[in-house]
């Protein structure tokens, strides 16, 4: 039992450290809720030629007619 719990803890820790290392050059600038808000903000970034990346931290989408999906939008730090 302790071995399984230890392995899960180590796995979660490894994932967290990997995310910190990969995201250290990126800064969260906006969190959009729903695809309409997402596309409005992304179109502004694209028109300015800004490089960005998007993460979906939790897939909280429960109803496809009421889209409240969370989109975290990151840009590179200067």
UniProtKB/TrEMBL annotation:
Name used for this protein in its record: Uncharacterized protein
